[in-house]
Amino acid sequence: MTEVRVPTLGESVSEATVATWFKKPGDAVAADEMLCELETDKVTVEVPAPAAGVLAEIVAAEGETVGVNALLATINEAGAAAPAPQPKSEGAAAPQPAAQQSKEVKMTDVMVPALGESVSEATVSTWFKKVGDTVAQDEMLCELETDKVSVEVPSPVAGVLTEIVAPEGATVAASAKLAVVAEGAAGAVAAPAAAAPAAAPAPAAAPAGKDVEDAPAAKKAMAEAGLTPSQVTGTGRDGRIMKEDVAAAAAKAAAAPAVSIAPAPASAPRAPVSSDDAAREERVKMTRLRATIARRLKDAQNTAAMLTTYNEVDMSAIMALRNEYKDAFEKKHGVRMGFMSFFTKACCHALKEVPEVNAEIDGGDVVYKHYVHMGVAAGTPTGLVVPVIRDADQMSFADIEKAISEKGKRARDGKLTMAEMQGGTFTISNGGVYGSLMSSPILNPPQSGILGMHKIQDRPVVVNGQIVIRPMMYLALSYDHRIVDGKGAVTFLVRVKEALEDPRRLLLDL
What we know:
Helix content is 24%, strand content 28%. It contains eleven helices and 28 strands.
């Protein structure tokens, strides 16, 4: 039998408090393995095992005050015959088998999933679970917002959510840690008492933010490191935060990008408001998607030499063609014939003649695209998104309509992936669905052109010397004047107008 005693605590220090026991009676211990931690007025003292063996008895429990050289515990050294259990009082439970006593709950980290090419961070928008909740494998834990899409994060294992590292509103880097799940803890917590009806179920590992007093040295270390208890994972009994936990959290924070709240785009200072007006206002934090839209649009204005040219198109021919064939088209292809396929085809046709509108600037080079990945802007409840129809120049009218319908539905449901919104070479934005008669669209960098569609409105126009009423639409082409000259922009818009007013030109490639 080997005794474990309080070591020398330092000059003028005569007593300490037992802060945490890392082992319990019956646990196997190795020589020099930490058994417990003592707290003095100024320092934390770790007590190692003087010999290998089995912890037989804890004499000084957590919270007790002990003097120098006081007996803390006893160890049955390795190889010694294990003594028969000697309960301290009647009714004391017999020691559990070592296999059961040493069984530990495995902690599994929940990480940010792959966000897509060139996407380096996201914002935690919603947590569906809270600390202490039981979760099933693949059950949704939280939702992240990136620049354009929402990403759901499932639980990698079944268990109990023990810690949330990144709260709602926090910006996290790709592959950053979001939370911790105690794997298998759900079964331990939810296990029916029928297995041992007379005994209370053992508590699961306490979640972060629990009502457990942390070690005094840990509190001091957290204050010095500028950390809060929610940012530190406690490894002590019942989730108690220890000094080394704080050191580990501080080192991790220094090595990884700090979790921070996504900054809102810069704006002019707000004018003062009266208290009466303030009481009738509602302040809502800008979502990451809205902040990103604001930043990208402002960047486009600051970076590109943006200019807009306008024209108008008579929609009579397209409307007549659509009215004549829409039923047959839908019956054969299973999708309605809209206007977007005509505009997409017309733009692809015009881009072949004016390739600089389908190009981008890369450093000191101009990259010309010999393909058309058409971005089609779509409004959703959370903001504007631009799904991309790849190789639109090689698609039929029916294929384009199907692609627009499918991606539009996925956009409204928030199911678009980052891959579906990357790589666009030109964009069409239809403000006419909201009743817009005229507007100047802003470029979608690094693209050099965007076409704005508007409301179809009956207007008097002169045709062959006669004033007639025709369904007219204003078109607006915004372009980057750094690589697109006025001649090219006007030519592009005229070719789009010609193709829409006489769709036969698309068939004849005129």
